[in-house]
Each structure stands twice: as C-alpha cells, then as structure tokens.
Amino acid sequence: MTVKCVLCAEEHDSRTCPNKRNPEFTPKCANCGGPHTASYRGCPNFPKIKKVSTEKTFASVLKERKQPSTATMKPLNQGIQPPTSSGTTDTGLPHSQELATIPLPAEFQINKEELADLFRLLKQIQLIMAKVPNVKQTLTEMEKTEDPYNKLFILSEEMNGT
After folding, report:
1. Does the predicted TM-score (pTM) go above 0.90?
2. Of 30, 31, 113, 132, which is least packed with CB atoms within 10 Å of its CB?
C-alpha cells in the first residue's frame, strides 16, 4: 500500500507536502479526485464507519457459551449436578467470576483423584523447598546425579545448611 498525501493526492506523506504553505493551492482528494482534502467527510468515497452489531459483543458470546440451548443438550448431561457450596468455590472466587462448569468425560473423572494427590504432593514439595536457602545451586547439584537417593541426600544436606 502506497502512502498518499491527504492534501494533494500525490505519493508522499502529508506532513511533508510542498503545497501545504501555498495559499493558492487547491486540494485534491485522494479518494475521488474532487476539490477537497481526502479527510473531508462529505466525500462520496470517504470510508464509512461500520457500526458494531450489539448482538455480537464479547459479553453476549460468552453468555451464549455459558447457557447452551436445550435443543443442543445431550441426555447424558441431565443427571449431572454441579457441586453445591456457599458463596465461593474451590478457587476462592465468587460464583459470578467463576468459569463455566463443563462435565468431564468418564476417563478424566478417574484421573481426577490422581491429579488431586499430585497437587497435594506438589504442595508438600513447595513447603520443603521453602526451607532450602539456595534452590538454584541445589538443583544444579541434584541434576548431576541419576540416583534418587543421592538427590534426596543432597536436598537434606541443603536443608540442614551443611
């Protein structure tokens, strides 16, 4: 796309137009060639601003996703009830700020307990690592060995400060 001057419709930037200071200069439209500047809103070829449809805003699309129509619901989802709780959920957010709850397939439900155990383990590791003064150096030493017992020994030495 080439740059066109808004004042004279030639191929240069309008800030550097040589005709800008000329009092006898008649502007030329870059859109239609008429005797006005290209930014004149009365130009027949002036780009029209399209109005945004009020039905297709981000918020309306999000509402549609949260509340699917009953015609598209599957019979399997009718037996699933969301967990009941007080004002907040497991994330600590009020229900108004919580994401839509989508039921998981059966194979994911089995792994849900394993994931919960994994997060509990990670929480314990986080508590242990808080006692290590120089984590970066400890990790470097642990990466040098393959034996898990040696890794635990290195970690315990760092926790004791030796």
Report:
1. no
2. 113
Tell me the per-residue pLDDT of 61-109, one tens digit each, with 9 for 90 and over: 777 777 655 545 555 555 555 555 555 555 565 555 556 677 766 666 6
For residue 125, give Cα distances in angstroms to 23, 25, 122, 153: 78, 77, 5, 15
Pair of tokens at residue 83? 């967990």
Locate the DSSP E strands across 3-156: none
| Residues linked to residue 88 through DSSP beta bridges, in sequence order | 94
CA pair distance 116, 110, nearest whole angstrom = 11
Q: Quote the CA–CA distance of 101 and 10 in Å, as a whole number.
A: 58
Domain extent listing, the chain: 1-48, 131-161
Look at phi and psi of residue 113 and say left if phi exceeds 0, alpha if psi is from -120 to 50, else beta. alpha
